[in-house]
Amino acid sequence: MKVLVADDNVAIQEILREIVTDTGNQVFLASSVSETADSILDNRPDLIFLDMYLGGEPGMKAIDIVHEEDVAMNMKVYILKNSKEFIPKDEAFVVGVIEKPFRSADIIDILSGTKIAPESEPQQAPRPSRREKRRKSKDTQAAEEQTGLPSGSAHLILEGSPAGVYKYASDFADAGYNMLIITSNKIKAVREKMKYGKMNVIALSAKPRLDYKDIRALGSLTESVNSFIAESARPVIVVDGLSALIEKNGINRTLTFIRQLTAKNAGAATFLISLNENSIDKKGLDILVHNMEIHKTVD
C-alpha cells in the first residue's frame, strides 16, 4: 500500500515513516502544501496522513489543488491535529481525524484496516449471472419493466424540475423497495408527493435546524446514506436536486460525494439523481455520468 505522510514536523514525519514501513507499506513524505499536492498527483497514494497546517497554510489546500487537476481522483485522508485545533470542514474524502500525540497502535490499526482499490479499473457493478437473474423476485422484475431502469445501478435524470425522478421513484415504491430521499425541499412536501411507508427523508439546508441537516456536510451525509444502504433490503437512493448541492458545495466536492457513494455501493443500491443540466458544464457532466446511465425528461 502507498501511504503519504504530509507534515512539516520532521520528528512526526520520522515516527510515521517508521510505522508505515515497518508494517510493509511504501511511504512518501511531504512538508508543504505544494509538495503534498505534487506527491498525490504523481504517486496516487492509497492513504494520506495530512497535517492540519503545512508551513502556515491549511493542509486541506493541497486536496483542493489536486481536485483542480484531477476532479475524478478518490482519496482517503486522515487529518493530523492538535487538541486545540478545530476539526476541518466536513469533507467527503476525510475518513478520520487523529489527535497528536497519537499512539503507534492507532496508526497500525488504520493501516491494517485500509482496503486498496484496484488501480487499473474503476469499480463497477458486477454483471449478474443467469442464475442470479432467475432468482430476481417478481417485484424486482416488475419494477424494472415499469421503470425501464435496472435496479442496483445509478441513473442520472436530466430535467428542469424533479418530476421525472419522482415518477421513477414511485415505480420502485410500488414494488416495495426501501427508499431514502435526499432533498433541499420541505419534508412535508416530499411526503405528500410520495405517500410511501418505506421511505426515509434527509432534508438539507444551508441553515441546519431541527430535522434539517447541513447541506455542506457531505462527509456526514455520506455516512448516513451508507448506513441506510447497509441496513436496508433493496435500497433506492433518490437525490431530487443535485443542482442545490453543487450550488452550496461546488462542483468538485459534489462530484466526489456522488462518485464515492455510487462506486462503494455499486450493485447494492439503486441511485436516482435529478439534475438541472444548466447547473453543470460539459466536463463536469462527463465525469458525473461515468458508470451512470443518463435519462432526459421533458418538463
- What is the count of distinct domains? 2
User: What is the mean pLDDT?
Assistant: 83
Shape: elongated
Question: Which range does the strand content fall in?
Answer: 15-25%
Give the strand tally. Answer: 14
- The separation of the N and C termini measures 49 Å
Judged by helices, strands and strand pairing, the structural class is alpha/beta
Give the strand line-up of the largest sheet.
11-10-9-12-13-8-14
Tell me the CATH superfamily of the largest domain: P-loop containing nucleotide triphosphate hydrolases
Walk me through what this model shows.
- There is one protein chain.
- The chain is of the alpha/beta class and 299 residues long.
- It is 41% helix and 22% strand.
- It has helices at residues 10-22, 33-43, 60-69, 104-113, 130-135, 138-147, 163-174, 187-194, 218-231, 242-264, 282-288; strands at 2-6, 26-30, 47-51, 53-54, 57-58, 77-81, 94-99, 154-158, 178-183, 199-205, 212-214, 235-239, 270-275, 293-296.
- It has a seven-stranded parallel β-sheet with strand order 11-10-9-12-13-8-14, with helices on both faces.
Please render the helix and strand layout as text:
Layout (H helix, E strand, L loop, with lengths): L1 E5 L3 H13 L3 E5 L2 H11 L3 E5 L1 E2 L2 E2 L1 H10 L7 E5 L12 E6 L4 H10 L16 H6 L2 H10 L6 E5 L4 H12 L3 E6 L3 H8 L4 E7 L6 E3 L3 H14 L3 E5 L2 H23 L5 E6 L6 H7 L4 E4 L3
Parallel strand pairs: 1-2, 1-3, 3-6, 6-7, 8-13, 8-14, 9-10, 9-12, 10-11, 12-13
Antiparallel strand pairs: 4-5
What are the main properties of this structure?
Rossmann fold, elongated, 2 domains, 7-stranded parallel sheet, 14 strands, alpha/beta, 5-stranded parallel sheet, 299 residues
